[in-house]
Amino acid sequence: MFTLLLRKMRNTKWMVFCLLTGFIMASAMMSTIPIYMNASLQRMLVKDMEAFQEEYMIYPGSYNTSHSFKSKLSTDEQVRTMEEYTALAEKQFGELDLPVAGSKKVVLDNDLYCKSISVEAGETPARLTLGGMSDICEHSAASSGRMMTKGVRDDGVFECMATEKSLKTNGLALDTVYEIANLFDNEKSVKIEIVGLIDVADENDPFWAEGIDEAYTAAVFTDYDTMMNEMLPTKAVNISKASYNFFIDYTKLDIPELKAINSSYNSQKEVFKKNDTGFIIPAKDILTDYAKRSSQLTLLLWLLQIPVILMIIFYLFMVSKLNIEQEKNEIAVFKSRGAGNRQILGIYALESLVLGILTAIAGPFAGLGLCRILGASNGFLEFVNRRAMPVRLTAEAFLYAAAAVLVFFITTLVPIVPALRTTIVEHKQSKAKKKKLALWEKVGLDVILAGGSFAWLYYYKRTQAKLLDLGITDTTATVNPMMFVASTAFILGLGLFLIRIYPMLIRLISSAGKRFWSPAQYVSLNNIGRSATGRERFLMLFLVLTVSLGVFFANTARALNRNAEETVEYANGADIVLAEEWYSSKTEAAQKRSGPSANMGGGMQQAAEEDTDTATVVTYTEPVFERFEKLEGVQHAAKVFRRDGVTVKSSKMTVVKRSAEKKTEKKREDFLNQDMNAGSSNTDRNVQLMAVQPAGFSEVINFEQRLLPTHINNYLEALAEYAPGVILSSAFKDYGLELGDTVECEWGANEPFDATVLAFVDYWPGLDPYAEAGDGSYMDFAVMNFDYVNVQTNMEPYQVWIDLADDASVQGFYDSVEKAKIEVTGMTSAKQEIIAKKNDPMLQGMNGALTLGFITIMIMCIIGFLIYWILSIKSRTLQFGILRAMGMKYREIISMIVYEQILVSGVAIFAAIFIGGITSELFVPLFQSVLDVSSRVPEFAVIPVREDYLRLYTVIAVMLLAGFLVLGRLIGRINISKALKLGED
C-alpha cells in the first residue's frame, strides 16, 4: 500500500504540493494565535509597566513584603524572627516561579540617637535610623567621599553611607565618628563613621525602585551582613522593621505566569497576614486589567480567524474534491479489481496523514515567521522598522497546529466517501446522465445564508442603538462572534446565489446570440451553460469567497485605522495645539501657585475663574506671536481662543437640558414638579466657545470635510465677511433659533455682547458635541471671529494651533520650543497621539490578523485558480482533439480558453469585488464595538481607499497572468497529433 501511495503521490505531485501548501497555511494560521497573542500581550504589558513606572516612580515588577518586630525581643529572638520571615517570603515568592531581576533585604532600627550630639536640657534627642541593606555596595556609587568597607574596623568603628538629605536631617557630617545608642536603653552603644554620600549606580536598576531620598530620608546605611552579624550582637542595635523585596523581570513574563500571580495573590496575602507580614504588588491593578485585556485580545484574534479558517477548509475541500474527480476512474478500477472501501480510503488517509505530520512540524515554524513579519505592522499591509516583537514557540502553538491538522485531515477525506460508493459501471453512466440539483439548491441555502445574515444585522444594530441610548458606550467587552460569522455567511450566500443563476444567464445569452457567435465563443458559452453542477461553478464560488473576503478585510482594516486616526485628529484639531504661560497683573500671585495646569487651555480657564471670584479685571500681556511661526517645521500658525462655561441667551430659545446619561433613579421632586416648562429656559450656560481667525484657522486644521454639508472654508468665509456672526451647534436649532437670529454671549467679568447666527453645524474641529458638563448634561458649542471677540471682551490667553510640514520632526519642534524659551502650560501632538493609538495591542492585533488573513486568502486564491485550470486543461485533451478534428484552428482553441477565463474567472472576480463592497458597507461599521466607541466623533465610516484596491487588483493581475502562462505552456505541451488522432477515432 505504501508503494502504491508513493507512486500515486509522484504522479499527482502538483496536487500533493497544493494540499501540503494548504495544510501548512492552515497550521501556520492557527499557530499564530498563541504566538502572536502572547507576543502582543507581552508588549502590551511592558508598555503598561513602563507607563506605571514613569507616572509613580515605582518599579512595577516589585513584589514587596515587610515585617514589624515586637519591642523588647532578645537578640536571638530577633535573629530567629528574621530567619522565619525571610524563609516565608522566599517560599511564597518561589511558588510563583517568576523570572527574577533581583532582590533586596533591608533591616532598620528606628529607635537610635546620636550620643555625640549634645541637646539642651529637657529636649528629646532627634531619632536616627540605622539600616542594613543587602548588596548595597554592588548597586551604589559614592557621589562624594568613598564607598564604605564592610564589617568593623580595627578601631571598632563601623563605616556607613547616607544621602545628602539624610545628613542635613540628622545634622551629621562626613568623615566624623559618631556614637549611637538606643533611645530607651543607652547603656550600650556603637561607633559609626559616614564615609561617603550614597548615589544610584545605574538609573535603570530596580534595586533603587523606591528611590533613595524618598524612602530613606533620615537613614544611615551599612551592609546587611554587617548589621546582622556584628552590630546586632552588641545589643546596642535592634531590628524595628524589616523588608524583603523581590524584583520581577516583567519583560519576560508570559500569560501562564501572570495567571499564577493573579490567582495566587489573595491566598498569598492571607498567608502573609496570618504571619503579621505586610505584602503588596504595586502593579496588581495593571496585572488584573492585563488579564482582562488578554482575554479580549485572545477572543478577537480567534474571531478574526473564523473567515480565514472557513476559507482554508473550503480550499482544502475544493482541492481534495478536484483530486478525487480526477481519480474517480482509478478508484472505480481499484474496486473492480477487488479492492475494498477501507483499503482505498486507507490510501488517501495515509496520504493526508503523511502531509499532516509534515505540517504539524513545519506549521508552527511558519507561524513564527509570519508573526515576526506581522510584529512590524503599523496598519493594514503597512510595515515599519520597529523593535521586534518577543515572539517564541510554545507547546501551545504545536497543539493549535495539531488541532488544525486534525480538522483539515477530516476535510480532505470527506469527498472520498461518495466516490467509494460508485462502481466503474455507475461512474461511466454518470458521465452521460444529466446532473441533478445539488442539495444546497434544493433547500435554498443561498437565500437562508444571505437572508439570515441580513436579519441578524438588523437585530444587532437595534441592540447597539438601545445600548447607546442607555448611556453604555464601551461595548469592547462584549464582542459578538456572530459579526464575523454573519459577514462570511453573507458573502457565501451571495456567492451561492450567483452560481445558481449564472448558468441560466449564460444559456440565455448563448441562445440570444447563437447566430452571431464564433465557434470558439459558442463552445465556451455552451461549456459554461451546461456545467450546472460542474467545476466551473465551484471555481466561481471559490473566487467569490477569496476576493470578497480580501476586499472585506482590506476595508475593515482601513476603516479601523482611519477611525483611530480621525478620532485623534478631530479631538486635537491641528498637528500641534500649544498653550503658553502669559504674564498678567497677577503674575506674582500666579507664581506663588503650585504650578500651571497641564490642561490645555487650563491657564485661561483658571484666570477667568479668579476674575469672577474677585470681580476684578486682570490685564494680560500678549506674548510675541511671530515666535511660533519661526519654530522648526512650522508651516502655519493660528490663534484660537477657547472657553468653557460661556452663557448664550436669546428670547427665542427654549433650552431643555440634554442629559449625557439616562437617569435610572428618580427623586421626590421629580414627581411633585408639575411645571410644564421645568428644566427649560432661554439661557444655555454650558457652551463651549471657540474664537478663530478664519484665514489662519483654515490653514492649520485637520478635518474631514464629509462631516459638514459644505466645505468648512465656506463657514470661515462667512465669519470673515461678517465678524459679529456666530456658528452654533445644531442643538440650538432644536431650541428654536433660526438663521439671522441674535444671541447674547457672556462670561467672566466681561460685558454681554451680541452675535448673529450664521449657520448650524454638527461638528467643528476640536469641539466634541458629546462633551459633558459638570452636571452631566451635554455641552453645546459656538464658533466666533477671534478679532470680534477680542474687541468685545478683555484679552485672555489663547491656544496656538500649528500646522507642521509633512517631513517635520515632532521632537525637533519640541526642541525648538525649549530653545525659544517658551513657557508651555500644555501641548499636544496629533502625530504622537496617533502613534500611541496605533501601538494599542487591540488595534495592532487586528491589523496583524487582517494582514495575515488577506495574504493567506490571496495565496489560496492564486493556488486554487491554477489548480482548477491545470486540471481543466489536462482533462480536456480529448475535447481539444475532437475540436481540432472538426476543423477548429489552434488559435481558436486558445481563444476559447480565454473566453472561458473571462466568463468564469473574470465574472467571478468582478462579482466578488461588488459583493465585498456591499458586505463592507453593511458589516464593517459593526467592528467599532471592538474599539472603545465612547469617542463617537467622527462617526465610524467605511471609505474605500484606492491603494487597497490597487493591491488587490495587482494580486488578481498576477494570478491571471500566471494562469495564462501556465495554460499556454500546458496547451503548448499537448501533443496535438495524438489528440487529433484520438478525436478522429
UniProtKB/TrEMBL annotation:
Residues 308-422, 855-967 form the ABC3 transporter permease C-terminal domain. GO terms for cellular component: plasma membrane. InterPro entries: ABC3_permease_C (IPR003838), Macrolide_Exporter_MacB (IPR050250). The keyword Cytoplasm does not apply. It is a multi-pass membrane protein. Belongs to the ABC-4 integral membrane protein family. This is ABC3 transporter permease C-terminal domain-containing protein.
